[in-house]
Amino acid sequence: MSWTDEKIERLKELWDQGLSTAEIGRELGVSKNAVVGKSHRLALKPRPSPISGKAAVKAPKPKPKPKVKESSRVYDVIKLGPQMCRWPFGDPGDHDFHFCGKTATVGKPYCDDHCAVAYVTKSSSRDRDRSASPPAATPIVSPSST
């Protein structure tokens, strides 16, 4: 594909009008990607991404998290006692990463509330499997096997 001077001028006009790259490509008889590539090489004014659907706007700063008394959180796995819940909260790289710290269920690393989330009983998984599977087919018995 060769870009003639006329096509380049028309590309610049359509670009300034705000047409999409696909629309410009249809108008000029080239692909959308050819339009994108040529616009970059010509250093035309960039446009906001069509994926976001909005003009490029900086995201607002997140509100700071409320401070919590350090005595109410267990911040380090080393500070956890043997019978304390080890359910993690947050990202380990964040300064406010911590563990639940409530009394753990005997034989488990988590408290009762977090055990309910972490472990699935056989009966509940069996019930879920039954509701998701189609009904069993009735076996066909041939007359010669009777």
Structure report:
It is a single chain. By secondary structure, the chain is mainly α. Helices cover 34% and strands 3% of the residues. The chain has a two-stranded antiparallel ribbon with strand order 1-2. Helix 2 packs across helix 3. The N and C termini lie far apart (76 Å). The mean pLDDT is 77.
Key words describing this protein structure:
mainly alpha; 2 strands; two-stranded antiparallel sheet; 3% strand; 146 residues
Run of helices and strands: HHHEEHH
Q: Determine the structural class based on helices, strands and strand pairing.
A: mainly alpha
Overall pLDDT = 77
Determine the N-to-C terminus distance: 76 Å
Main sheet? 2 strands, antiparallel
Envelope shape: elongated
Q: Helical proportion?
A: 25-40%
Spatial order of strands in the largest sheet: 1-2
Unreliable segments (pLDDT under 50, ≥5 consecutive)? none
Tell me the Rg in angstroms: 32 Å
Count of β-strands? 2
Separate helix tally: 5
